[in-house]
Amino acid sequence: MDRLLRGISADGSVKITAVTTKDLTEKARRIHSTLPVITAALGRTMAAVSMMGNALKKEGASITARLNGGGPAGTILVTSDDKGNVRGYVQNPQVDLPLKANGKLDVGGAVGTDGMLTVMRDLGTGEPYNGSVELVSGEIAEDFTRYFFESDQVPTACALGVLVDRDQSVIAAGGYIVQLMPGAEDETAERLERSVQRAGAVTNMLMNGSLEDLIYKVLDGFDPKILEEDPVTYKCYCSRAKIRNAIAGIDKNELRIMLEEDKSIEVKCQYCGEIYTFTEKDFEE
Fold it and tell me: Do residues 119 and 106 lie in contact, with contact meaning Cβ atoms separated by under 8 Å?
């Protein structure tokens, strides 16, 4: 079961969110039939957005991240609710690129760097808040780190990882976001930077220990305390009623022509793959 933990250092100077997303990333892979490099790109984005969504702590709130760096993957779109449950898709799920020289998946090559990361926070209280930054590397974690620094003005370390097996299934996935609290001293920032570097890759930590172990390792020397735990999953909110209402908003003459030509209208949800079929009878009123 995927889960998310929130913690803080003993002195209150550093907060951390960590999440394991193996199951939800595997579910997304199956829904969208992604090849490994796209599985990694989508999985990293979902882990980041899950942690950001969980931080909203407002019933009905949501957060959406959109990346497009001009690479062959096209647009990546991920949405999280206020609990950290996510759904997402990639414009071109079948992209396949050679491994990088170090044997890693070339996520940056798939995403590209000629574009933007845009984050929309919808708190359900009016106009959503939008923030955008230029992509740094297309490797996702560095791009979200830049977003936090430039858009939110918060010193942040973000690490994300997805490990794919030879059969293309997901072995491990997740990440963490570490942020300095207001008033933290420069020495604290330096200690944190050294600790993050020593911790190593996210997938290695998840493969060799628990999510709690990851937090203790990343905040080694800070005596972290776990404050909250939440389950997270891949969750789509589509329904027949929602899709029907959307179709009903089409111009009546256009809708009539569509139904006359095909006798029915078939709509596939881009997030979960569910197919909804509507006939003329569904729109008689």
Answer: no
